[in-house]
Amino acid sequence: MAKARLRKVIGGYVTVTLPPENAIELIEKLRERLGRGGEDVEDALRIIRNFDTFYEFMRKKFKEFLYPKKSVSDMIKGNVIVDKVKLIKNGEKLVTIVFDRSVEDRVVEETIRDMGLDLVVEE
C-alpha cells in the first residue's frame, strides 16, 4: 500500500509527500472535491507527469521547488490549489506538494483516506 505523509508547515501551508501517480490522483480529486483549480493544477500535473525531465531541470538550476504557473485572476478569485511542487529521487520517486493556504488539511486528509492510501500525519 502506498504511503502519504502529511505535514502542516509554518504559514498554514499543508504539504503531502507521496509517489507521483498518487500525487496526480490526489490533485485531480481535490480539484473535483473543491470545485476549483486553474492553471496551477494543469501545470502541476504536467510537472509530475514529466517527472524525470523536470527533476533534471531542478537539479541543473539548483532549485528546491518548482512553482506551477498561476494566473492573477485565479489568485484573486481564490481558485489556486497548488502553491509549489518538489520532485525527490532517493531510491524511489516521490513528490511533495505544497498546497495553497486556502486548502484545509482536513479536506486533504479525507481525500487521501478516500484514495485508500496509508496516511501518516507529522506534526
Quickly list its features:
123 residues, alpha+beta, five-stranded mixed β-sheet, 5 helices, globular
Summarize the helix and strand pattern as letters.
Answer: EEHHHHEEHE
Low-confidence stretches: none
Largest sheet: 5 strands, mixed
Mean pLDDT: 94
Percent range of helical residues: 40-55%
Strand segment count: 5
Distance between the termini: 22 Å
Tally of individual helices: 5
Strand order of the largest sheet: 3-4-2-1-5
Report the portion of residues in β strands: 25-35%
What's the alpha carbon Rg, rounded to whole Å?
14 Å
* Quaternary structure: single chain
Q: What does the overall shape look like?
A: globular
Structural class by helix and strand composition = alpha+beta
Molecular structure report:
This protein is globular. It has a five-stranded mixed sheet. With 123 residues, it is an alpha+beta fold. The model has no long low-confidence stretch (mean pLDDT 94).
